[in-house]
Amino acid sequence: MGMNHEKGIENVDKMATVLEKMYHHRQAKPTVKSEELYYKYMSDYYRKIVTAKAEGKFIAGHTVFSPIEIFFAMDIVPMHLESTSGTLAILTNRYAEFLDGARAFGLTPECCSAHRILAASFFLKELPPPDFIVWTSQACDNTTKSGDALLDLYQIPGFFLDRPYRFVPHQVDYYVKQMKNLIAFLEDKTGNKMDYDRLRAIVNNSLRVMNIYHEVYELRKAIPAPMRNRSFMNQMIIEWAYCGTDEGVEWFETVKGEIEENVKRKKGAVAEERYRLLSLFLPPMYENKLLDWMEREYGAAIVMDPMSSWPHQVHLDTDDPVEGVARLAFYRTASNLLHGPGDVFIKDALRNAKEFNVDAALFFAHIGCRQACAMIRSMKDALQNQTGMPFGVIDIDLMDPSFASTDQLKEKLEEFFERLEEKS
Length: 424
Known about the structure:
4-stranded parallel β-sheet, alpha/beta
């Protein structure tokens, strides 16, 4: 375990160093402040993992939508498993090595590549073993099984959170009980007690981040679109890593200020906006430049997407911070839409199409996502029947560049934009 830890820490240290260099590059050639802060905060995030053991802190490996507020309140260092393993593959360009490792582990291409890379990063001992794992039923079956696999690989303790299907009182009560059991589990494993006053302050920060996200949602209705296509990915990752922290609040306030300024000046992120698109799933994580190309070549602005769809303010009583943490799981937009039921996702897409003056919908169909791809026909029928808008499906793999090259993806997108041109 010692050698595994050293190798993994060395890899995370390299990730932090690369991100620091990107931060310094942004400082030398400034674009917008939020981009600088993004690289700084993500470098800091991984540095905390590197220094955790030396500082006598525990590391919690966790899957997406785990309650990081609880970790922060107990001074436990979170390591977002999907994001950390994915970032390692992206920054080191080792997709093939990790995906080969996943095959050796027994995972087929039908499994989500993000989770195949996660399993491989542990199977190949490329990440430091956390002290325990917390995983959830959000937002997909792959997440649920990933936690089981990691426990088997490293023989470390873990805790599974079964997020209920519907946001109704008795199911919220069920999830509150699970949060209390999680706290008891962490207290037992760390020897530390929960600081409930600190947890309350952290939950209030999370609430602030969610409501800034809502304000950004409203601002993005402006014409021309005031935010770049690729920016929503940064927002998603910062919310995953920093929700509940002062840094998270500062970053989202910075983003909101930048977008407010663009709206005030009627400045669009696209030089000449021609198409306002509703993106219905994540584009390939390894190729953000594809989103820049869509802006540059076709004047295509992604005006809304499921990860950014916060149509309502969040009102939450934080007197009981444990209940607050449980309720936050039902408000987080991607969890809400992707966890189910499907009619929630469809209603949200129809609302977005109307409120954001959308010209067309684009569905990046990730081969390994059964939940999202199962929605394509229902989503297409609903949008076309009620709005008549064009609907494009682009087959991708979220983290496997060998599935479709950048040139192949551009070819498919060119066909989609040709259809839009013919319609206009």
